[in-house]
């Protein structure tokens, strides 16, 4: 049986059925199934080494599963924001040129994605001189260039401070609504994604539990992985307030009460 099927035109954007990935004698993930629909945010969580990135690369077609099947809707466009993208600091590269490396889609497309991600003025800036928050937004902008049906984000708020994380998650929610796309988002912390996700898939090489984030946070299998009391200690970070942050984390006093 083929391990990649792109025949269907309705149903989920993508579906993974009983996926197993082995390298030599080591099993990286096993027995994992998930699907993503239009307008749905699915968050994959788990401890370090749980196989989250392996699962994402399998979803993207970068890794072929040892067993199981990946089915994509016919013609689905996927935008990918990687966890880490090493670039030589000696390479002179502006934000505009960085976007062009993803495909020469023209100035209009560049301007659109920079505007949509809240960084319209950094096109001529060196990518080595922008802030961490701006870099994450630029990676998101790159993923949006081809107007994806499915947006795949691997640890999108990595190394961003708490206020910046809240702004990025709010931006991701705005992007989902604008494009009416599905979103698969990888994280290692449930509390960071609870307010912005529809469904959580918790893995630790295998599927531990799945469902609404509030239900997953109380699941004994989740508690066994992350410890008791974590839901109370790490409150749901909904960031409900009446002010806004700049990308660098400072408060926009014009909107503060």
Can you describe what's shown?
With 257 residues, this protein is α/β, with parallel strands linked by helices. It folds into two domains: 4-77 and 149-252, P-loop containing nucleotide triphosphate hydrolases (Rossmann fold), CATH 3.40.50; 89-147, no CATH class. 30% of the residues lie in helices and 25% in strands. It contains nine helices and twelve strands. A six-stranded mixed beta sheet has the order 6-7-8-4-9-10, with helices on both faces. Strands 1-5-2-3 form a four-stranded mixed beta sheet, with helices on one face. The longest helix has 18 residues, at 162-179. The radius of gyration is 19 Å and the shape is globular. The N and C termini lie far apart (60 Å). Residues 229-257 have low confidence and may be disordered.
Briefly, what is this?
The protein has 257 residues and is of the alpha/beta class. 30% of the residues lie in helices and 25% in strands. The chain has two domains: 178 residues, Rossmann fold; 59 residues, no CATH class.
């Amino acid at each position: 049986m083929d391990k990649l099927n792109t025949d269907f035109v309705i149903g989920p954007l993508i579906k993974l059925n009983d996926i197993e990935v082995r390298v030599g004698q080591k099993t990286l993930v096993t027995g994992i199934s998930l699907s993503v629909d239009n307008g749905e945010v699915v968050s994959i969580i788990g401890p370090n080494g749980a196989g989250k990135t392996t699962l994402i690369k399998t979803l993207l077609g970068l890794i072929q599963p040892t067993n199981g099947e990946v089915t994509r809707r016919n013609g689905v466009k996927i935008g990918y924001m990687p966890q880490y993208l090493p670039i030589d600091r000696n390479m002179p590269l502006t934000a505009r040129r960085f976007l062009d490396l993803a495909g020469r889609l023209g100035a209009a497309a560049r301007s659109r994605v920079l505007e949509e991600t809240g960084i319209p003025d950094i096109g001529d800036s060196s990518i080595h001189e922008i802030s961490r928050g701006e870099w994450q937004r630029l990676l998101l902008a790159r993923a949006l260039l081809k107007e994806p049906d499915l947006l795949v984000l691997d640890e999108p708020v990595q190394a961003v401070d708490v206020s910046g994380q809240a702004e990025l998650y709010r931006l991701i929610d705005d992007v989902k609504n604008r494009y009416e796309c599905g979103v698969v988002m990888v994280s290692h912390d449930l509390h960071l994604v609870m307010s912005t996700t529809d469904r959580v898939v918790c893995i630790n090489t295998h599927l531990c539990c799945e469902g609404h984030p509030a239900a997953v946070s109380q699941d004994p299998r989740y508690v066994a992985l992350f410890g008791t009391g974590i839901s109370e200690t790490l409150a749901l970070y909904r960031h409900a307030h009446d002010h806004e942050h700049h990308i660098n984390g400072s408060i926009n006093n014009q909107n503060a009460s």
